[in-house]
Amino acid sequence: MAMRKFTKWYQSGAPWVWLSAGAVSICLLMVFGILLLIVMRGMGYFWPGELVQLTYRDGAQETVLVGEFQEHEQVPAAQLRAAGIELPAEQKTVQRHLFKVGNRDVLGQDFRWLLDTHITAKHYPAELVVLERREWGNFYGYLKAIKRDGNVVAEGEAAYRELSGRLDGALKLHGEIRTIEKQQIGAINYSLERLRLDRRVLELEGEDTPEALAELEQERLALEERYKTLQTSLVTLYQESKHDGVVMQDANGQEKEILLSQVVRVYQPNAMSVIDKCRHYLTKVWEFVTDEPREANTEGGIFPAIFGTVVMVMIMTVFVTPLGVIAAVYLREYARQGALTRTVRIAVNNLAGVPSIVYGVFGLGFFVYFLGGSIDQLFFPEALPAPTFGTPGLLWSSLTLALLTLPVVIVATEEGLSRIPRSVREGSLALGATKAETLWRIVLPMASPALMTGLILAVARAAGEVAPLMLVGVVKLAPALPLDMNAPYLHLDRKLMHLGFHVFDVGFQSPNVEAARPLVYATALLLVVVIVVLNLLAIYIRNRLREKYRTLEG
Question: Dihedral angle at the C-alpha atoms of 116, 120, 126, 129, nearest 10 degrees?
């Protein structure tokens, strides 16, 4: 009887239902677990951790250290004994801590692994100060004095109050310097390069008459005069930025004077209230989203990567949408349904499974070297041998991603077209509309939910691609954004930064891996948020369009 019940239950297919449900549940748990890890590590990156001053015994030597605890782990005692560390015989495991000591310019390193058994004392003084610097990472220690041209202007408790106002002035001064360097002088250098190319064009075309050259020379002299004026202002600002300095003392009593122009932020985490920490947290998040990277991408923000990702995806959308829709309309509405059409559909479906790096190699060979080189020969001979479009850049990155995501758009659009009832087409034709009018006014609007879903799924995939972009335009640090105030404003030939590549670069190519690790989680979290938002947008647009054309489907 039991065997019969088991056989009946087995033949009903219930085991396979439970097996599938279990597999889906395990996959969902793994996905949620990864997301939870990214959220915890990514969001915690911006919270100001408490500073601890501890005494560490390493053999017969004791060292005083100041810093932050980053990670904790249990290590087998046998492994440490094998490395020559003395431990009690009965001890099986030892907890060790990854301790961020900062002060890289003094200690030569940012992090140290400390054994819990070797920490003899620790406390949390409220006077400890964190100095975020533009170079050499954070400095941890005690604020001793504020100096102006080498003279002490404030000491002790008054120094911290004086530092706040002077730091605001230093940040404002740094902003003025950056504006002159990146915007005003950058625009002049761009114009000078354009004049050089214009002169070369005249030489190639045999039109380099004295009158034409004199006009270019006059423009060049005007630009150089303006450049000298800006350079004088820049020298003055740099000299002014060297007036103020801050004297810091590390845990061992060694003093170091730091220019205030090199300081980004100063705070005392052990003395901060919860509200102050929340305010600091929001400030750091805003800096992360809107600022430029520094310290080999391990500090600062990732705005160029966000901007590059968005611009590249938008340009990719401009290319992939008409190509995907036209291909799907031809395959479904015009092509003779036979062996050849079925072969084309199979090829399109197989293209979706081609490794993305293959698209990168194709983009490098065809778009960059062949097409870009031909464009340089035809339209930019004055710049040769320096390439203009014959080098990886924004345009070729967008086109490569357009090819990569084209099968997704074709399949989704064709699937939407196949769901439109034949009676709708016949009714439109019976009322006197042409086939093109029927497609444009009836069929495509009704298929737009599927089209938009496929398009935004393609955008979501493109936002996370890394491998092909490494070959066709994405770099570690772009000197300028692809969009600025210099004509033609959108520079398709420039290289760009990308969120996915930023995660790869910071996580695996950074010279300071331990310092970069928290930033990897924060950047990955932002990338996940972008993809989730795109998918939610796809669902919203699809539902709106489905409601709009529900009556036609009925």
Answer: -70
388 is written with which tokens? 């203009």
Pairing state between β 128-133 and 263-267 = antiparallel
What dihedral angle (degrees, nearest 10) is formed by the CA atoms of 289, 110, 273, 164? Answer: -80
Residue 146 CA to residue 166 CA, distance in Å, equals: 9
Q: How is residue 73 written in tokens? A: 């782990």
Could you tell me the CA-to-CA distances from 184 to 70, 177, 180, 227, 524 in Å, in that order? 42, 10, 5, 9, 34
Cross-strand pairs, 259: 245
Interior/surface letters 94-119, b for 16+ CB within 10 angstroms, e for the rest? bebbbbbbbbbebeeebbbebbebbb
455 with 415: CB under 8 angstroms? no
Cβ(134)–Cβ(260) below 8 Å: no
One DSSP character per residue, 149-192 reads TTEEEEETHHHHHHHHHHHHHHHHHHHHHHIIIIIIHHHHHHHH
3-state secondary structure of 65: strand
Q: What is the pLDDT of residue 550?
A: 63
Kindly compute the dihedral angle of the four CA atoms of residues 344, 349, 350, 351, in this order, to the nearest 10 degrees. Answer: 90
The CATH number for 303-553, chosen from 3.40.50.2000, 1.10.1040.20, 1.10.3720.10, 1.10.260.40, is: 1.10.3720.10
Q: What is the C-alpha separation between 109 and 442, in angstroms, rounded?
A: 66
Q: What is the pLDDT of residue 554?
A: 47
Give buried/exposed letters for 283-300 (b at 16+ CB in 10 A, else e): ebeebbeebbbebbbbbb
- Provide the token pair at 402: 């357009």
- Tell me what pLDDT residue 9 has: 66
What average pLDDT does this structure show over 101-111? 82
Banded model confidence at residue 389, pLDDT cuts 50, 70, 90: very high
**Distance separating alpha carbons of residues 226 and 222, to the nearest angstrom:** 6
Report whether 472 contacts 357 (CB < 8 A).
no
Tell me the three-class secondary structure of 309-349, residue by residue.
HHHHHHHHHHHHHHHHHHHHHHHHHHCCCCHHHHHHHHHHH
234-to-180, 184, 239, 242 alpha-carbon distances in Å: 7, 11, 9, 13
Q: Where are the domains of the chain?
A: 52-128, 150-242, 303-553
Buried b (16+ CB within 10 A) or exposed e, 506-523: bbeebebebbbbbbbbbb
Which residues, in sequence order, are CB contacts of 503 under 8 Å at separation 6+?
466, 520, 523, 524, 527
What type of residue is 163?
L
Q: From CA 189, how far away is CA 37, in angstroms rounded? A: 46
User: Could you tell me which residues are beta bridge partners of residue 123?
Assistant: 53
d(CA 498, CA 317): 16
